[in-house]
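cron nightly-structures :: item 1 of 1
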Amino acid sequence: MIVVPYGSWPSPISPGDLARASLGLDRGLVDGDRVYWTQAHPEQRGRVSLWTMGPDGSREELAPDHSVRNRINEYGGGAWAVSGGVVVYSADPSGELWAHEGGRRRLLAPGGVHRYGALSIDPGRRLVLAVREDHASEGPCVQRIVALDLDGDNAGGGRTLVAGADFYASPALRADGLLAWVQWRLPDMPWDATELCVAPLDDPGLPVRVAGGPGVSALHPAWDTTGGLVHLSDASGHWNFHRWDGVSSVSLHSDPHDFCGPMWNPGPAPYSLLPDGRIACVRLVDGIGRAGTLDPATGYLEEVSTGAVSCELTGPGARVVALLGFADRPRELRLLDLSDGSDVLLARAEEVSLPPEAVSVARAITWDSPDGPVHAWYYPPTHPGVSAPEGELPPVQVWSHGGPTAFSSPDFRLATQFWTSRGIGILDVNYSGSSGYGRAYRERLDGAWGVSDVRDCVDAARALVAEGLADPRRLSIRGGSAGGFTTLAALTTTDVFSAGVSLYGIGDLESLATDTHKFESRYLDRLVAPYPEGRDTWIERSPIHHLDRLACPMLILQGADDTVVPPAQAHAMADAVRAKGLPVRLRVFEGEGHGFRQASTITAVAEEVLAFLGRVHGFTPVGAAAPAAGPDGRPGGA
């Protein structure tokens, strides 16, 4: 055992490994005896490939010259679908739709002002159902549900079925032609309030709302074999299963846990209807995703052992695709056969492996706040051959996830181990407003964004210090997007952190009222205050207006093509910090949007943050030059 200061431990994971070894995995689908899934490749500038595997185990990439992705709601979702041997997908960045059925052909002519998502296929009627997003004018985009002809040229962009709401998702067609879909209107987000509607395909002009409504989020409809419409609703306070039987929506069980997360992306339903009537599903319990099968007749839920701490399931049928996250090894995409318990590995997220003793496993931390319990995951510095000098406490990064209506799970990520293997702890906070703990936990952030989330991140850091697990002088905070806002707000309203890293974060809330995309254009009405009536609150919560309270270095990382949080935010924040005379570094990455996907960017971000923290916290990363001295002779320049 060698003795090395925290932050200077020799790590087996290089910045380049974070890109070279990683695949972005998403949920897959089963169609007959074949399974389909996608993989995102940082080394190919973030290209998303579409794969299929046959019953003999042979694998084929279906669109090797395309990136299977869309930009609906800017985040994308439901970019491909398969049914009856027909595959339809959206090619990025053109937005063209392609069909793969024996051969491959365009469903739409090149170009145009439309984006297509939430795809589903009715092979019998030779139809593709889609949410079409129109960008023909300078104003906000317009969404519709449309039908496309699998055998036509679809020159007009498809036949409009449903229009009038602000947003749509999950079009699903019953065998007799009854169409179901989810819709919602601003200022609501899909986790606030939606309507689940049905109408005949041939006359969809007079829809009937069968679930949802004010204060209720009804999501992910799927028709069962009896003609009933299964869906998830949080009418009870948690997303539980319900079924519309043609007359009313009836709860199938009562459980104080969520069976889905917030619908940021209008993809496939996160469950599978099994042939025997049961529902394969995932329940979130204390932050852990537990797979199981629900019997709607009795409400009995039987757990399915996967060894995972996070899980996402998609079907349909007895064979389901499971995206599994483990505490001690990389995520895996597996094909599970619930009829006989067999499974097949489809893909693994990261090929870099660590021995068990080198893995930092998340430890759950919970503490009380004025609003109730708050939850976080702590990853301690871990290295089997290295220890720190006696009496030294480690630097710790507090991570604030995006959303803010999102959730951090405790599964293994190489990006976490990159830090813990160097002797830097990670504290990943599911602050008030996070999903995964029910509607009341999400609603804690209503009117309190920039207050409750900041308090929770500060209290998390203080709790770790109180346990003797963190150096109070070497606490940093880091977040992306909404987590970047929490980071900036924490740095301008508290003195707990000695450094901050913002990735495409929000510094000026008011600019989002006029300079962001439609999907989130009214998000802050609930999280902060209605605009413009509550403009004073928006200004008061914006970090850029409180730089007089900032007293530590900052690193700001931004994508040049970001349409969610435009680059002007990063430039304005950096200019304001620089004008105050504080150390700040801004780096803008060309070809990147909201979220970094390219291998070169992923590598550069790790290098930038490591060098920045080394300078601020006074450690020398292995292979790096000694940190430069600040004006007072101590490390601190940035």
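cron nightly-structures :: done
The CA atoms of residues 416 and 626 lie 24 Å apart.
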